[in-house]
Amino acid sequence: MAKRSSLSIRIVEGKNLPAKDITGSSDPYCIVKVDNEPIIRTATVWKTLCPFWGEEYEVHLPPTFHSVAFYVMDEDALSRDDVIGKVCLTRDTLAAHPKGFSGWAHLTEVDPDEEVQGEIHLRLEVVPGTRACRLRCSVLEARDLAPKDRNGASDPFVRVRYNGRTQETSIVKKSCYPRWNETFEFELEEGAAEALCVEAWDWDLVSRNDFLGKVVVNVQRLWAAQREEGWFRLQPDQSKSRREEGHLGSLQLEVRLRDETVLPSGCYQPLVQLLCREVKLGNQGPGQLISLIEETTSTECRQEVATTLLKLFLGQGLAKDFLDLLFQLELSRTCEANTLFRSNSLASKSMESFLKVAGMRYLHGVLGPIIDRVFEEKKYVELDPSKVEVKDVGCSGLHRPQTEAEVLEQSAQTLRAHLGALLSALSRSVRACPAVVRATFRQLFRRVRERFPSAQDENVPFIAVTSFLCLRFVSPAILAPKLFHLRERHADARTSRTLLLLAKAVQNVGNMDTPASRAKETWMEPLQPMVRQGVAQLKDFITKLVDIQEKDELDLQRALSLQAPPVKEGPLFIHRTKGKGPLTSSSFKKLHFSLTTEALSFAKTPSSKKSTLIKLANIRAAEKVEEKSFGSSHVMQAIYTDDSGRLQTAYLQCKCVNELNQWLSALRKVCINNTGLLGSYHPGIFRGDKWSCCHQRDKTDLGCNKTRSWVTLQEWNDPLDHDLEAQLIYRHLLGVEAALREKHRQLSMGPEAGRGPTGPGEAPGDPLAELFQVLGDLQEAHRSSPAGSPPSEPSRILELQT
């Protein structure tokens, strides 16, 4: 049994932001921090005070996290980025919104005295004396303190205050992981109401000392406990008055916290087997579970349920059968061919999820080069005469402004070139399309043709395929390549317009160039010859796609399984160490790295021969490196054992915080079942004769900070988590149990009563009744399981000052 927490985050948009540039505008982006650690950076939206991001993330976290903060920044090319403001949501706030926090939140000022992080290790005792008791406070060490100096570290010391007396520790230079081991004593009077305050400070020679956080101890409770020792979270100084909210603008967010206690696999087997049996039988009647789940699932959570069911059946090898059952359900209630798969039904949502899970790598291969070309060319493209801005185009070869007609013709040529390249790439990609995707499209094509067999509906099976492939997969990816991981940044206004027009052309091709689609925007007429040609190409592509035989498909699937695609790949800088410390400028080299389920490998180029750097079974931790170690905040370390069993460290530098967290996440996920994973690590490096983080001189010293192996990002290519998916389905069914029982009551009174599987070996009776029994058993398993609450911290003696 395990307790798992995850945050679903959607950063929608901002409004009324203050201008930070001399142009009267800003270049805003967001940084998301969990407990003051940067996890996500959105793309920058240039020259606007009302940016739209629309970016979605899911972060898996330990149940002990405290808060998530959204910082809105203004990007500057020549100076340090400006902080505009922040929104902070505590864990308690999110827990109070089971359906998630959604809406606008005012940005607040970022006060340095509130930007604290880290923990301090204290031992607190009440010591009896001959005349009076004494309060003994031992300040042992601290970890993960905020770096306040330009070198990426701090010079921390601790100030202990009680009953008008103040004592201070020594200063530890250039460390966010100091160790003091110093003890202070104060006279203690019984019944004293004074609190003990332990403050951490960063010492500065010239300017005033910087506040690093504090712990306030309730002495009355300590007196009752007599002794307490542990790590205490540093708290901010919130005594300052706040300025009026709203003057820094607002941020629209959707944030949902989900805490799940996941039981052992065996507990979910009855539920999984029941759902799988229903899919294998392929029954579509009113009493069947999949049909009833769709009926009782609300619109707002249908996408989430569809994705979870899809992943569950993918793990059971039944994705094609599940989708086929949904196709039949949709076809059985569709009378008009032109309305097929146009609603947000469970079939449509499940198919969208399926293509993202199973077809994203294929999409990148087909669409990636075309998107890259559009971004690199940055051509002015416009077909709508009412929107043409001749001044934005520049001059012709004769050094005169282009006419509107020339602009329209040039734009049509550019779009025809992009559309032609895309259609050609698609036509060549039949064998590259994943076998399971091809099999699903073939089944969809066959079911639609059986339902609409007449000659006048000959295009309907093709449109059914393109409604998913083009309208719900390729076109959305063209419109928002950042959201489909095709680009790291959002497109600028000029590129966005080109992508929009290209997406419209792809939609017209996907609609098989119907009169209705042509009539919407007559100014798209210059593309019609290419659209008609594209329809023929697309029909030929689909015919080949759905024509592959089962044997060929199985052979291809076996061949592909022998060449497992990498979990993650891309360029990184590797830092090499020699002797007692890292080399200087020659100590890093740019290489192409590839992470598979077997090893982390590298090569000079993506196409050259790979050499293994680390076998994954040998990895003991994957963590960040503090900024001062290499002068960069985007360095990670992979700690592993060599052939002789000694611990070694590989330092890898990424180009941005997103790439850093994506690599860390990928490494942690593929190593999650490794034996001997470390519980602590050094965020610094061993330079000279000591660790740069905590200044310890023993190279084999246990790490001064705890590892964060539980912090990962949800990615489209993540391995399936069968137990979690079953738990999520159980949680959803529990939420709609009342509606299911009402359906069961209605069915038991109707003509369908008593209907059930009757074939040999099939379970008799009522699937809904079986489901209620399974849900009851799971409820009992959760009740009897040990509480999944996080380990308690010594917070009962804390009492924050206000």
From TrEMBL:
GO terms for biological process: cellular response to calcium ion; intracellular signal transduction; negative regulation of Ras protein signal transduction. One of its GO terms (cellular component) is plasma membrane. Residues 301-511 form the Ras-GAP domain. One of its GO terms (molecular function) is zinc ion binding. Keywords: Calcium, Cell membrane, Cytoplasm, GTPase activation, Membrane, Metal-binding, Repeat, Zinc, Zinc-finger. Its main location: membrane. The keyword DNA-binding does not apply. The keyword GTP-binding does not apply. Residues 748-802 are annotated as: Disordered. It is a peripheral membrane protein. Pfam families: BTK, C2, PH, RasGAP. It is found in: Cell membrane; Cytoplasm, Cytosol. Residues 565-672 form the PH domain. Residues 1-105, 116-232 form the C2 domain. SMART domains: BTK, C2, PH, RasGAP. This is Ras GTPase-activating protein 4B.
